[in-house]
Amino acid sequence: MEKIAFFGLGNMGGPMAASLTRAGFRVAAFDLNPAALEQAQRDGCLPCDSVQQAAEDAEIVISMLPSGEAVKGLYLGQQGLLQQLPAGTLVVDCSTISAEDASIVSSAARERGVRAIDAPVSGGTAAATAGTLCFMCGGDEAAVDAARAVLQAMGKKIFHAGAAGAGQVAKICNNLLLAIHMTGTAEALQLGTDQGLDPKVLTNILLESSGNNWSLANYNPYPGVMENVPAAKGYTGGFSVALMLKDLGLAMDAAATSASSTPMGALARNLYQLHGASEENQKLDYSSIQNMFRRPAGT
Ligand code: NAD
């Protein structure tokens, strides 16, 4: 069975690496955080002390890192991983980064004879755990096809969006829309609750009405409405406000390059910026935007 090197074992990468071991792949894993490495070992990965050790003999390299800087830091430069990988290795970066950074990594890989695709994901931590992620790929069709078996072990939908960076464009469009319907959902649930409705009853009504959407149905932000979502756990785990702000920043940057109008996304970004002004809120799941709409007790 193919050997995979996996970098970045956080909220998403951890369960994704676990899906790969369940599917029978040999996974050598590296993360800067020792606690994440210990969990990866419990999930059947081989924990490694360095990038180089993890990458040894790997036919496929997967990264799930927090930023474009982290991705470029891993692959590029004199000490970068691309210098170590033999020609023909397949690199699959699943992080959400700019299309520009994805293209830089892809070009540098091509110069070394390494095949690289961007394959950001949607579905959140629940889909990462269940192995039902949606992958949006950018890169050569042959490289995307070569990655399919490994992506299928972590997800149920694999799309080829276009050339290098195209997966990232699809992903930021998705997260722009996600931020908009999450903030809208939080606003509507708060209005109904302030008007005396039970948020569970209101949710059930909206689920059968034209206001239904993914945030309402699968990631309800109002505490007590759904189990097993961050709102049920004090907004811990999940997808942090800091990462949502990163993605909305990427969307705004992209909009500037194509002179696209994104007023709703800009508003959602402003709301998240206000919410994330405190460091504590930056670490919470992005559905904690509900707290911005909540009235102080007794008012
Ligand atoms: P996270 O912060 O939970 O995990 C990131 C992990 O990367 C951490 O464990 C960190 O220690 C590790 N790391 C950072 N730099 C490293 C390096 N140079 N080498 C090795 N490890 C390194 O983040 P996450 O929520 O897992 O998100 C990861 C990526 O997935 C982000 O780009 C995010 O935008 C994207 N994403 C997240 C979600 C979600 O629901 N959390 C959903 C879709 C996409």
Automatic annotation (TrEMBL):
Range of residues in the leader sequence: none
Assigned EC number: 1.1.1.31
Ranges for domain 3-hydroxyisobutyrate dehydrogenase-like NAD-binding: 165-289
One Gene Ontology term of the molecular function aspect: 3-hydroxyisobutyrate dehydrogenase activity
Pfam families, per the entry: NAD_binding_11, NAD_binding_2
Keywords, in A-Z order: Branched-chain amino acid catabolism, NAD, Oxidoreductase
Gene3D superfamilies in the cross-refs: N-(1-d-carboxylethyl)-l-norvaline Dehydrogenase, domain 2, NAD(P)-binding Rossmann-like Domain
Any coiled-coil regions, as ranges: none
Reactions accelerated catalytically: 3-hydroxy-2-methylpropanoate + NAD(+) = 2-methyl-3-oxopropanoate + NADH + H(+)
Identification of the protein by name: 3-hydroxyisobutyrate dehydrogenase
